[in-house]
Amino acid sequence: MTGGKLTLGAVPARLEEREREITAQAETMRERVAQLTAEAIRERWLHRVSTIVCRDGDGRILVHRPPG
Protein backbone atom coordinates (compact mmCIF):
# COMPACT_ATOMS: atom_id res chain seq x y z
CA MET A 1 0.00 0.00 0.00
CA THR A 2 1.18 3.49 -0.73
CA GLY A 3 -0.40 6.49 0.98
CA GLY A 4 -3.29 4.36 2.28
CA LYS A 5 -4.22 3.09 -1.19
CA LEU A 6 -3.84 -0.42 -2.55
CA THR A 7 -1.60 -0.76 -5.58
CA LEU A 8 -2.91 -2.66 -8.58
CA GLY A 9 -0.75 -5.66 -7.69
CA ALA A 10 -1.87 -5.64 -4.06
CA VAL A 11 -5.58 -5.83 -4.88
CA PRO A 12 -5.58 -9.48 -6.10
CA ALA A 13 -3.34 -10.50 -3.18
CA ARG A 14 -5.72 -8.88 -0.67
CA LEU A 15 -8.75 -10.45 -2.36
CA GLU A 16 -7.13 -13.90 -2.20
CA GLU A 17 -6.31 -13.38 1.48
CA ARG A 18 -9.87 -12.35 2.27
CA GLU A 19 -11.27 -15.27 0.24
CA ARG A 20 -9.19 -17.70 2.33
CA GLU A 21 -10.52 -16.14 5.53
CA ILE A 22 -14.14 -16.38 4.37
CA THR A 23 -13.66 -19.96 3.16
CA ALA A 24 -12.25 -21.00 6.54
CA GLN A 25 -15.17 -19.36 8.36
CA ALA A 26 -17.71 -21.02 6.05
CA GLU A 27 -16.13 -24.44 6.60
CA THR A 28 -16.27 -23.98 10.38
CA MET A 29 -19.95 -23.04 10.15
CA ARG A 30 -20.74 -26.01 7.86
CA GLU A 31 -19.15 -28.37 10.36
CA ARG A 32 -21.12 -26.84 13.25
CA VAL A 33 -24.41 -27.03 11.34
CA ALA A 34 -23.70 -30.69 10.52
CA GLN A 35 -23.05 -31.41 14.21
CA LEU A 36 -26.24 -29.69 15.31
CA THR A 37 -28.30 -31.42 12.62
CA ALA A 38 -26.93 -34.83 13.61
CA GLU A 39 -27.75 -34.08 17.25
CA ALA A 40 -31.31 -32.99 16.37
CA ILE A 41 -31.89 -36.20 14.40
CA ARG A 42 -30.31 -38.40 17.06
CA GLU A 43 -32.37 -36.79 19.83
CA ARG A 44 -35.49 -36.71 17.64
CA TRP A 45 -35.90 -32.98 18.11
CA LEU A 46 -38.18 -31.05 15.82
CA HIS A 47 -36.02 -29.07 13.44
CA ARG A 48 -36.36 -27.15 10.21
CA VAL A 49 -34.68 -27.62 6.89
CA SER A 50 -34.41 -24.99 4.18
CA THR A 51 -33.54 -25.46 0.55
CA ILE A 52 -32.48 -23.08 -2.18
CA VAL A 53 -33.18 -24.16 -5.75
CA CYS A 54 -31.22 -22.45 -8.53
CA ARG A 55 -32.38 -22.72 -12.13
CA ASP A 56 -30.78 -21.47 -15.29
CA GLY A 57 -32.59 -19.83 -18.21
CA ASP A 58 -33.49 -23.26 -19.63
CA GLY A 59 -35.10 -24.38 -16.37
CA ARG A 60 -32.30 -26.78 -15.46
CA ILE A 61 -31.65 -27.16 -11.75
CA LEU A 62 -28.20 -26.61 -10.29
CA VAL A 63 -27.31 -29.57 -8.08
CA HIS A 64 -24.60 -28.93 -5.48
CA ARG A 65 -22.92 -32.03 -4.14
CA PRO A 66 -20.67 -31.28 -1.19
CA PRO A 67 -17.32 -33.05 -1.20
CA GLY A 68 -17.04 -36.26 0.75
Describe the structure in your own words.
With 68 residues, the protein is mostly helical. Helices cover 49% and strands 0% of the residues. The chain is built from one helix and no strands. The protein has one helix spanning 10-42. The relative contact order is 0.07.
Extract low-pLDDT stretches: none
What's the count of strands?
0
Biggest sheet character: none
Q: Which series of helices and strands comes N to C?
A: H
Oligomer: single chain
Average residue-wise pLDDT: 85
The assigned structural class equals mainly alpha
DSSP helical segment count: 1
Supply Rg: 19 Å
> What separation lies between the terminal Cα atoms?
40 Å
What percent strand?
A: under 5%
Shape: flat
The share of residues in helices is 40-55%
What keywords describe this structure?
49% helix; 68 residues
Write a brief structural summary.
With 68 residues, the protein is mainly alpha-helical.
Per-chain topology:
Blueprint: H1 10-42
